[in-house]
Specification:
Structural class: alpha+beta
Number of helices: 5
Strand order of the largest sheet: 1-14-4-16-2
Largest sheet: 5 strands, antiparallel
Strand content: 25-35%
Number of strands: 16
Order of helices and strands: HEHEEEEHHEEEEEEEHEEEE
Shape: globular
Length: 232
């Protein structure tokens, strides 16, 4: 596990092979990595495409590029996925995208779009299920910059990008709305480039752990009822 932690810190994700294909063993392994954070979904849970919760992750829809829990003031740090069963279906591949590299590509190719996504703030939210209406304590931009070191350019410290969780744009004037959409279009184009993508088909026994504020995780899910993922 020590080697996996070093790999995750360097690359933003890692795979852990040899995990027993059970819910109990998966949870025990994750608790060796870190505590399990409880949210409105619970702590450790299983899901499949049955719309048990009104969320696109519970459907067979392909999900575009996104980070999770953009609607939390403090988004989740580590995510883990374990495909417990994959029978009678097609697809299910996961796509990892280095959000920091994409942000630096945007800064180099379109400084004005980069500036817009750092400056214009969004009211992210989660709603649709009874009793659930979650928003951060304040608005956040797509790209958050860290305090710059003396004489250095400010580095991106966090990426928030989930079009399904995006609420109103907090614009100071109407022109900023058009500015945001133009910047978002360029950002989305970069995320779709093959050079930014790493595809991996998960399989039972292989656990994926990714650092969500470093990796913009893409999922293409075409699950049958028998295909179950454990998520934390």
């Amino acid at each position: 596990m020590h080697g996996a932690d070093d790999f995750k810190r360097k690359w933003g994700f890692c795979f852990v092979d040899g995990c027993p294909v059970t819910e109990k063993a998966t949870q025990e392994l994750l608790e060796r990595i870190a505590f399990i954070r409880h949210t409105h979904y619970g702590g450790f849970w299983q899901f499949t495409s049955d719309l048990a919760i009104k969320d696109t992750a519970y459907t067979q829809l392909a999900l575009p590029a996104h980070t999770d829990t953009t609607y939390f003031t403090d988004p989740v740090g580590l995510h883990s996925f374990h495909l417990l069963s994959h029978t009678g279906g097609e697809g299910g591949a996961s796509l990892l995208v280095d959000g920091f590299m994409a942000a630096e590509t945007l800064r180099a190719e379109s400084p004005e779009a980069f500036d817009a996504l750092c400056r214009i703030k969004i009211r992210w939210h989660a709603s649709g299920n009874e009793g659930v209406n979650i928003m951060p304590d304040r608005s956040f931009p797509v790209l958050t910059l860290a305090e710059p070191q003396t004489g250095e350019e400010a580095k991106v410290s966090q990426v928030r990008w989930n079009n399904d969780d995006r609420a109103a744009i907090q614009a100071d004037d109407p022109l900023q709305v058009a500015e945001f959409y133009a910047a978002a279009r360029k950002w989305a184009e970069i995320l779709r480039r093959p050079t930014c993508q790493y595809w991996q088909q998960l399989k039972p026994g292989r656990l994926l752990v990714n650092k969500d504020d470093f990796i913009s995780r893409w999922k293409t899910l075409h699950f049958s009822k028998e295909q179950i993922m454990d998520s934390v």
